[in-house]
Amino acid sequence: MTDRHVTVDGRTVAVAEHGDPDGAPVFLFHGTPDSRLGKEFTDAPARERGLRVLCPDRGGIGGSDPLPDRTIAGYAAEVLALADVLGIDRFATVGYSAGGPFALACAAGCGTRITGTALMAGAGPIDDRPGAKEGLAPSDLELIDLIEHRPARAATMLRIQRLATKLVPSMATKQVGEELTEPDREWLAGRPAGDAMGFFVEAMRQGPHGVMDEYRLWAGPWHLQWSAVATPVEIFQGEDDGMVPMHHAEDIASRLPPGIARIHRLPGVGHLSIQDHVGDVLDALTTP
Length: 288
Fold this sequence. Notes:
- By secondary structure, the protein is of the alpha/beta class.
- It contains eleven helices and eight strands.
- It has a domain at 2-135 and 221-286: Rossmann fold (3-Layer(aba) Sandwich).
- Helix 5 (151-167) packs across helix 6.
- The radius of gyration is 17 Å and the shape is globular.
């Protein structure tokens, strides 16, 4: 991994890079609460395919400076500015979990500079659609409610969780495992606790407010121009995902123009174990 910090419009943006440094660029957008770290699962598959995977921290997360009043739809302009600084013309995107909304924002707002979009267990809108919250992780729903109604308590809870994860990662991993489906528990059991949870500790390096903003954005209006998406959107969704359900993939596909989205249903795959299928995701982005 190459971990670097670049200046974009006067702000520091942290970017981790994997794969072939001279390869075709793919931006990978992390979930929530998540960060640029922990994306080593992309490295070997990206090298094999001649791809350069860039994982930026969003505003207030990890090593990236806060960006007041940021929006999901506005992330397209942020990524275009970052791409300009990095000397990147055209690029593909992958949105993992709650990074999905930001990949879709780029699909709608980056015009012809986007070559393709993929979602890995991508979270859909939580709006007035009946059943939109069904099947989402209880911890995420609890945080969304606390952030809206008791933000000070939410901030305190996140600070405590970060400290506990940093000091006793095995306990944090066990707690996370209680909310996972069996494929994800098996996947998590095969990884060192510190490695598995480092992304969470890094996410709140600057405090909990960047993560809280992420939840507010996800739960609020996205303001996307869905009809503007003109390049293919490949939606990979595990059928045993206990954190983002299949109906989110189906809802996203229904909002996009006809013929744009293709859903890849993965039997026996969960929210974390979908990482083992990143090679298929990258293939879908690069195969006509």
